[in-house]
Specification:
This protein is α+β, with helices and mostly antiparallel strands and 327 residues long. The protein folds into two domains: 161 residues, Alpha-Beta Plaits; 138 residues, DNA polymerase, Y-family, little finger domain (Dna Ligase, domain 1, 2-Layer Sandwich). The chain is 40% helix and 20% strand. The chain is built from twelve helices and nine strands. A four-stranded antiparallel β-sheet has the order 6-9-7-8, with helices on one face. It has a three-stranded mixed β-sheet with strand order 1-4-5. Helix 8 packs across helix 9 and helix 10 crosses helix 11. It is globular.
Length: 327
């Protein structure tokens, strides 16, 4: 979890890291405490980044701020966490990963090069898997060794990811945090049928279309959803509702369609036509995987596919592309 301390000396604090910050109630309490130390807060599934620019005037030096945050969360919530502080979200994340449980670690700008020089490649955020193996094959095992390669060489090795990798290994990160208060707490979509719908196949198709609309809005906010709620209203006015937690947070339609269909089958137990459907996606977090330099091929293809689909539907409407199966 990270908080960025910006402006004066560009201090950034990568704040508490909690394994499985999945409980929404706990997450809200954590955000409430972190608000006292930051001006902008970007939550992810198991960590949160915060911009604490100017907060040193209130809380003191970066390490003092980090330890105050740790103490308040332990006092109010009973949680022991680690806090990382750096000049940007990338360095804050590196600091948090390097800190011991219950420790606050501040990587000052003048210490950045020395700290990165001995950092193992696998500890550089966004670099993993095949990229690490490729670099090990040419006897590059630390970030310091990686920095000896020119930008041109990295582009040859990794294509478009080479430019980002060149900046990453130098601790450069210019992205702006998205504030949690500027994002919706949940995303809901509702459809009222022109006439009562009783065909099971048609009902499932309508459910999928409604989910596609909600997921497109989710991706527009760069969010992932951990829970889904479904409300069905029958032709006679009676209502059924249910909710289901996802095994893992989802950003793509195909990840949530089986969950939505299973939930629909569970709560739709009457042989009565439907009047309306409503889907709500909740327990939302920012999609940290979107910042990975080297996603696995299947996820990269899925992200590119849905980006193209979303652009077409934004321009020409939801009906411009329909999902189907080849018999």
């Amino acid at each position: 979890m990270g908080e960025k301390l910006g402006n004066s000396g560009e201090k950034r604090c990568k704040a508490p890291h909690f394994p499985g910050m999945g409980s929404r109630a706990i997450a809200k309490d954590i955000y409430r405490v972190c608000r006292n130390y930051t001006t902008r807060l970007e939550p992810h599934f198991d960590e949160v980044f915060g911009d604490a620019g100017g907060m040193e005037l209130v809380h003191g030096a970066p390490l003092v701020l980090g330890r105050k945050l740790q103490a308040q969360i332990y006092r109010e919530l009973g949680l022991t966490l680690r806090v990382g502080l750096g000049a940007n979200p990338l360095m804050a994340k590196i600091a948090s990963a390097a800190a011991n449980r219950g420790e606050a670690l501040w990587i000052a700008p003048e210490q950045k090069d020395r700290f990165l020089a001995e950092l193992p490649l696998a500890r550089l955020p966004g670099v993993r898997g095949e990229a690490v193996r490729c670099l090990h094959d040419i006897n590059i095992r630390t970030v310091g060794q990686l920095r000896r390669l020119s930008r041109a060489v990295l582009v040859v090795l990794f294509g478009r990811h080479g430019n980002e990798l060149y900046k990453h290994c130098r601790g450069e990160d210019t992205r702006i945090l998205c504030d949690v208060d500027a994002t919706p707490p949940a995303i809901a979509r509702k459809h009222v049928f022109d006439r009562p719908l009783c065909d099971p196949a048609g009902q499932q198709q309508a459910l999928k279309a409604l989910l596609q609309r909600a997921m497109r809005a989710l991706r527009r906010w760069r969010l992932i959803a951990s829970s889904i709620q479904l409300v069905i209203v029958y032709h006679d006015g009676k209502m059924r509702c249910g909710a289901k937690k996802c095994l893992r947070p989802a950003a793509f339609d195909h990840e949530l369609v089986p969950v939505a269909l299973a939930l629909f089958s569970r709560i739709h137990s009457r042989r009565v036509a439907l009047r309306s459907l409503k889907i709500t996606l909740s327990d939302l977090f920012f999609d940290q995987r979107a910042n990975d330099l080297f996603e696995d091929d299947l996820r990269t293809k899925s992200r590119n596919l849905y980006r193209a689909i979303d652009e077409i539907r934004e321009r020409f409407g939801n009906a411009a592309l329909m999902v189907g199966r080849v018999a």
